[in-house]
Amino acid sequence: MSFDGSFTHAMVNELQSELIGGRITKISEPYPNEIIITVRAQRQNYQVLLSANPTYARIQTTTIPFQNPPVPNNFTMTLRKHLQGSFINQIHQVDNDRIVHLHINTRNEIGDLEELVLVIEIMARHSNIMLVEAQNRNIIDVIKRIGPDKNRFRTILPGSKYVNPPQQDLLNPFQLSDFSVIERLDHDFPNLEVLAGELRKHLQGLGIDTSLALADALHQSGGSLQTKYADFWQKFNHPSPVTTLTRQGKLGFAPFPFPPLQIEQHFNSLSTMLDQFNQTKVQRERVREQGAQLIQITRNELKKNRKKIKRLEKDETDAVNADQYRVKGEVLMTYLHQAKPGMNQISLPNFYDNNQPIEINLKVELSPSANAQWYFKQFQKKKNAGQYIQQQIQNAQAEIDYFENIESQIELANPENLDDIKTELQQSGYLKRQTGRQNKKVQVSQPEKFMATDGTVILVGKNNLQNDKLTLKTADKRETWLHTQNIHGSHVIIRSFDPSEQTILEAANLAAYFSKARASANVPVDYDLVKRVKKPNGAKPGLVHYTGQKTVYVTPNQELVEQLRRNAKK
Which residues form the NFACT RNA-binding domain (predicted)? Predict the structure, then answer.
């Protein structure tokens, strides 16, 4: 289901139960066009996400960790100035539209109490977040500024008046008083898809999937039409959230189960469900957006080196056949008296093959003796090339292995991990450095921390620079190191000199989950003492050799990974 007006209605009910009366303690913008407001309410902290992302605009509470940018932008600074320390006294939805107002009591610069409204409009590429004065509707600031050159009907700039988006002449389905409209539509349009389309034309805030679900509910046998209509909308007031799969396997979400969608997983709240959905979908989108340059470089290098290996393998085949040039040169020198100047071909007995005739092509511009010398030179050239080609194939294969590893890391990366990958490619010369940053010391981000069931800390590197720092500098030589066997993945360190068997298995599960084998079963994971893990001289970041390892086999388990992650936050 889309984040339509009906889903917004359910989400506002959830936020009201959690946030009303809460105090705003922190404001951040971890990603472009997304604000995180930390609210202290009911003796706990809630992270409220306001997103104006063109694809995944929404409002929810979230438990997904994020990193603050080093320098906050102007809109974040404005919100901090006006809202930090203030209280949320009301949250409401405008009709059944995708517009939510957070009414906030705060004090102005001279200490007088005033009311500000944080407005989020969830409207695809037109989504926006703005801070508005409640009394005179003046816009204080906005995350996406819209001038008259972009929209002459609705200017959204600091200092201008806030005007609601143009209203559609539609009925609010939660406040429907004249039920004859629904009765007429149900009578006139017995086809499910057609009825759904007509419902969207008359009722406000219905996405395609919501209208189809409503049409299906109205078509169910038993009970009056009005009862079926009321029961359907009551489910938005008391949701039972689920993630869903279509018949084509596409992941989605809904405030409650409805056919024909297959239920993937049940959740206790809409926000928890959106977190799960967005961790698997939105996170990938963010990585694709922010890592587009890295993805392009990786694909180009893989394509280039795969082509290079094909070309080298062809040259290698020619080198294997180099001996035929030596044979022709020796046969020609033996029967040199039979070759006459100006001949372009000659057939001579091959004493290496029971004197069977061998055809030898000649260059007419060369003497017979010079032709023989040409064959000897070709033989030596191709013989030398064979050794060079082998080395080049090994180098190209090493490049492919390296960039397949980078590709795997990008696939598994969170957006905050991309900076390390970018730095690594800059240091290796695959990506140009930004001007003025050549001599700046690189700060590698920290590995992710997990905690085993018995309380042992486990660290997981998410990219090559993290892996190198974690294994070669952070870890004690007596601690245990893990990595998937012959599979690209993360370095994992158990911060214990004598870990239990259960801790080793849990750490192995992390190693398998944060590897290219995440979707596989029975993944081999090697574990060894850190002191036996060595980095070869001149090796690329992340590459190590180790000896004396033991191997366990595990199946990656996302629920276990989340549990170990939660353990580390307690």
Answer: 450-537
pTM of the predicted model as reported, rounded to 2 decimal places: 0.59
- Please write down the HEC assignment for all residues of 182-226: HHHHHHHCCCHHHHHHHHHHHECCCCHHHHHHHHHHHHCCCCCHH
Q: Give how far the C-alpha of residue 470 lies from the chain's centroid of Cα atoms, to the nearest Å.
A: 23
| CA nearest to 217, candidates 200, 199, 203, 229 | 229
Q: How far is CA 517 from the centre of its chain?
A: 16
pLDDT of residue 569: 81
pLDDT tens for residues 132-178? 999 999 999 999 999 888 887 889 999 999 998 887 789 999 999 88
Cα distances (Å, whole numbers) of residue 101 to 5, 40, 41: 14, 19, 18
Angstrom CA distances, 201 to 207, 208, 251, 365, stand at 11, 11, 27, 86
For residues 290 and 268, the model is more confident at 268
Q: Where are the alpha helices (DSSP H) in 413-497?
A: 418-427, 464-469
Let me know: does 525 contact 514? Beta carbons within 8 Å. no
| 503 and 454 Cβ atoms separated by less than 8 Å | yes
With H, G, I as helix, E, B as strand and everything else as coil, classify residue 242: strand
Task: Evaluate if residue 439 carries a pLDDT over 70.
Answer: no
**Rounded CA separation 479/502 (Å):** 16
Average pLDDT over residues 4-25: 96
